[in-house]
Write a structure and sequence with these properties.
Oligomer: single chain
Strand content: 5-15%
CATH topology of the largest domain: Rossmann fold
Largest sheet: 6 strands, parallel
Order of helices and strands: EHHHHHHEHEHEHEHHEH
Structural class: alpha/beta
Strand order of the largest sheet: 3-2-1-4-5-6
CATH class of the largest domain: Alpha Beta
CATH superfamily of the largest domain: HAD superfamily/HAD-like
């Protein structure tokens, strides 16, 4: 077989919530707050969002490990949180998350145009997500009438472990037959997204304004004074850059402009 032409990208692997659907990644955050509340423990939006991007059970475990949350749990229950408690929280979260997803699966502005651009360049398009298969299938179902269905859709149920481990991104590349992995770009809105891509040996592009790091719906973001929005977006950009993202942009609409830069670096022999 003739080797692939150096410098050519093969695939783009996209996160779901906060990256291509659900502006602000609002569906997951709200459900985490609700499920803890049902167990007598109040958590803040910041606490709910901090581990975003991970497997949802891992996410719950990370929240319960926060000293402030652990103290509130102890006060409410008279004992530290256990693995059985985490399992119970996760079991309750699943139907809550599934039920709300249809209301939070609208494509982010510019997503369809960006995906069309990827495909016009001959790139395959896959998705990876911290959602389980049931949740993922709801989002896929809601995206189809809006004009998008990925070439492969990987979720945490498909792999031994979710983010920050690389297996979802690597399985996506396998399903797409996209190689070498250095010719794949992983796009996401969370620190675990970036870790997933880096650990897989891929180029990473972070989106700052539409995702978890800013954590505002389009309506909320539009209502902010311009200077405040700019400052908060810059903070999000800096956090994602510090996580090691090769590129940080505001939204999926900006990703097409990055691809030629990645291919230039590939052509020069650079690897992620």
């Amino acid at each position: 077989m003739v080797p692939e032409r150096p410098g050519r990208l093969r695939a783009v692997i996209l996160d779901l919530a906060g990256t291509i659907v659900d502006y602000g990644s609002c569906a997951p955050a709200g459900v985490f707050i609700e499920v803890f509340k049902r167990h007598g423990v109040e958590i803040t939006v910041a606490e709910a969002r901090a581990p975003m991007g991970a497997h949802k059970r891992d996410h719950i475990a990370a929240v319960t490990a926060m000293p402030a949350v652990a103290a509130r749990w102890l006060a409410a229950h008279g004992a530290p949180v256990t693995d059985a408690d985490i399992d119970a929280l996760y079991a309750e979260l699943i139907p809550l998350q599934v039920a709300c997803l249809p209301d939070f699966s609208e494509l982010i502005p510019g997503a369809l145009q960006a995906i069309a651009y990827f495909r016009a360049r001959g790139l395959k398009v896959a998705t990876t997500t911290g959602y389980n298969r049931e949740m993922t299938d709801v989002v896929l179902r809601e995206m189809r009438p809006q004009g998008f269905e990925p070439d492969a859709a990987i979720c945490v149920d498909d792999v031994p472990a979710g983010r920050p481990e690389p297996w979802m991104a690597l399985l996506a590349a396998l399903r797409l037959r996209a190689y070498p992995v250095s010719a794949c770009a992983k796009v996401g809105d969370t620190v675990p997204d970036i870790a997933e891509g880096l650990n897989a040996g891929m180029w990473t592009v972070a989106v700052a304004a539409t995702g978890n790091e800013l954590g505002l719906s389009l309506t909320e973001a539009s209502a902010l004074p311009a200077e405040e929005l700019q400052d908060r977006t810059q903070t999000a950009r800096e956090r994602l850059s510090s996580a090691g993202a090769h590129y940080v942009v505001d939204s999926i609409a900006d990703v097409p402009g990055i691809l030629s830069h990645i291919e230039a670096r590939l052509s020069a022999g650079e690897r992620p």
